[in-house]
Amino acid sequence: MAFNDDSFIREVNEELRSDQLRFVWRRFGRLIIGGAVLIVLGTAAYSGYRYWAGNQAGSGGDQFIAALTLADQNKTDEALAALTAIEKNGPGSYPVLARLRAATLQAQKGDKAAAIAAFSAIGKQTDIPVVVRDAARLRAAYLLVDTGTYDQVAAEVQELAVPADAFRHSARDVLGLAAYKAGDFAKARQWFQAIVDDPQSPRNVANRAQMLLDLITASGKAPVAKG
């Protein structure tokens, strides 16, 4: 099912009167995170493609496409085996691309710990483009919203949540979600407000942040600070 941002926000807003933040998170949390992950993948896609295209090497490309085909056919174990082989012996940029795809497949299989470890490791690999590293760190952070602590999420992406960083919108988003899930609504408000106040925030990110700000305000658990 496609993620329709506007209709989703309208549906969540209907829950505001119930004043049950935990209930809303249980019902909508996965959709909120899923929509945010799509933004991260879209932002990195073009740069990732250029990185791949600029480093293609004959048979390596054929092997990688074959592994992707297995994944598309839901032959997950076979795809992971093929990607592992590319990680070990592939030319050029294919090993890191294989690691990224393998981590995604691990997350889809439910092995989030392995996926987080893989994305986090890629995020620390200094010999690949910054945009690829940062996208991997964000993927690790979004998985950690469900399985880790706020501090673990912050360790991955807090340094991206600064005004000059291209990924600041997604970094603030995942930090806000992690704080919200942890019950730290004051901190969640700070991150979501930073998104709303940034005129360059993408519309769908800003809309979701405003929705969650409204939800927090309706709960009365993190009053708006008076200047």
TrEMBL record:
Residues 25-202 form the Ancillary SecYEG translocon subunit/Cell division coordinator CpoB TPR domain. The keyword tRNA processing does not apply. The chain crosses the membrane at residues 28-49. It is a single-pass type II membrane protein. Pfam families: TPR_21 (PF09976). GO terms for cellular component: plasma membrane. The keyword Transmembrane helix applies. This is Ancillary SecYEG translocon subunit. It comes from Rhizobium tropici.
